[in-house]
Amino acid sequence: MWFLIKASIPIILAYMLQNSLQTVSVLVVGRLSSEALAVAAFSYMFAMATAWLIALGGTSALDTLASSSFTASKDKGNLGVLLQRGLFVLTAFYTVVVVIWCFSEPLFRALGQPESICIHSARFLQLLAPGGLGYVWFECMKKFLQAQGIYRPGTYALLITSPLNAVLNYLFIYTFDFGIYGAPVATGISYWLSFLLLVAYAALIRGKECWSGLQPRRALANSWPFAKLAFLGVIHVGTEWWAFEIVALAAGRLGTLPLAAQSVIMTADQIINTIPFGLGVAESARLGNILGAKNPRAARRSAHCAAILSVIFGSIILTVLFATRHVIGGLFNSDKRVISLVADVIPYVALFQIADGLNGSCGGALRGMGRQWVGALVNCISYYGGALPGGIYLAFHGWGLAGLWMGQCVALSLVGILEWIIVGLSNWENEVQRAVDRLDEESHDSIVVSHH
């Protein structure tokens, strides 16, 4: 358990700092006008629901394959090949998103957004597109190092780029007079700098022993199984995130006051969510390593420790949220009605923290086993099979914003409990065998390619 705490803390910090890049960008833009603030917030929200999903969900294929390859494979260079495969496949995924961004103006109109959002957000996203690829590659590089048990460099890189990002945003928006369009350019530069710092760390300090040069033929040879896992990883993470975005859109229909309160709650929830998500990432890398080392008993122990740890974390967060529910709104907004509404809704957010912890840790365990499809299926059933429609129904039948979050509370409780049961009932000997089979398939394809 101590190993998981030690591994997850730098990962959680890295995700918090990563989120801060766009939060700071929105705050700097917000000084221009409230319209500019709305455009930046909406654009980053859309980026999160599309491109950042590829970075955070798609790279789970590396959690599955790279971590078990590191402990099981005699040729450590296989990990470098997997990194190249990840960069290739996820760049292909990202290209699809960029095409959507390029034609997002009519899409936003179809979603009923105000005209200013349609025009400016479409342009904002087009300018963010080159930098967004840096985000995806940065995540790939982080997973490459995490598979080797190197967890801290992502945090080190972001400790440098995070303050630099604030300066760049200010320079591009105000000094260079780019206005609102300076934000995506500056943030994009920050993403690429973060990636380059990780490459420098691996090359100069630690992590390069698993790199055996560029091998495009080997990287492309077995990309279909990788693409399948990556796609399911996107769906696994996406089904949850999209549900929260739907709640945000529904809150907008309830009026200005609920929308303001929803923005506060979502911002707080995004910060809190980095804790179970970071724990899940640490667990998936750790579990992959153990499965690759062919140790079913240690794998079972690791999964149980992660679940227990997530319940402890969740209980602490629950207590803090309950204790500070009248204070949270005031940190973001001075309107007494908004502060009061936030205080009314926060208890529902607090209630699902233990379940969200289990969702993070057990979801991480499923990704480490290569069972992304199970997590995706559980999310689809829990969110879209009743909880989300039920929450929306309650919201427009007298419950307001509290109704929406009640739906989320039910959904997350279902996800957490179901994933915990599924992981608890796993046959670990079978999981070890499946990890070995995946690596055998990998090495067989490598031999075939090298003989051609």
UniProtKB/TrEMBL annotation:
InterPro entries: MATE_euk, MATE_fam. It holds the Pfam family MatE. It is a multi-pass membrane protein. It is found in: Membrane. This is MATE efflux family protein subfamily. One of its GO terms (molecular function) is xenobiotic transmembrane transporter activity. The keyword ATP-binding does not apply. Belongs to the multi antimicrobial extrusion (MATE) (TC 2.A.66.1) family. It comes from the Eukaryota. Keywords: Membrane, Transmembrane, Transmembrane helix. CDD domains: MATE_eukaryotic. Its main location: membrane. GO terms for cellular component: membrane. The chain crosses the membrane at residues 12-30, 37-62, 82-103, 156-174, 180-205, 226-244, 264-282, 303-325, 345-366, 373-396, 402-425. GO terms for biological process: xenobiotic detoxification by transmembrane export across the plasma membrane.
